[in-house]
Amino acid sequence: MLVVSRKVGERIFIGDKIAITVVKIGSGGVRIGIDAPTEMAVIREELAEKLRQEEQDRLLKVESCSLETAQSPSVSGDRS
Questions:
Q1: For residues 49 and 36, what is the distance between their CA atoms, to the nearest angstrom?
Q2: Of 2-6, 33-37, 42-46, 58-62, which gets the smallest average pLDDT?
Q3: CA distance 55 to 37
Q4: Using CA atoms, how far apart are residues 55 and 57, in angstroms rounded to an integer?
Q5: Within 13 Å of residue 11, how many CA atoms lie on the same side as its CB?
Q6: Nearest alpha carbon to residue 34 among 15, 61, 53
Q7: Which of 8, 15, 45, 76 is the most buried (most CB within 10 A)?
Q8: Residue 6 class from Cβ within 10 Å (0-12 exposed, 13-18 middle, 19+ buried)?
């Protein structure tokens, strides 16, 4: 992890396409601006974790439904 000190208005570049700008420094935290290509997702960690958890829950539900379907006895349609 790279740790740097920056003042308001100063930037950090990540590669050629991402720039992080310190917008405001307050007692409770730092406000930053991020310039990145639109095709690159930029989200907060807590939102990323929530999305991961929702995806896991969805996959477990689909897997559970698949198992239930596979385990249920098939009904023969004998109509004599």
A1: 21
A2: 58-62
A3: 25
A4: 5
A5: 11
A6: 15
A7: 8
A8: middle
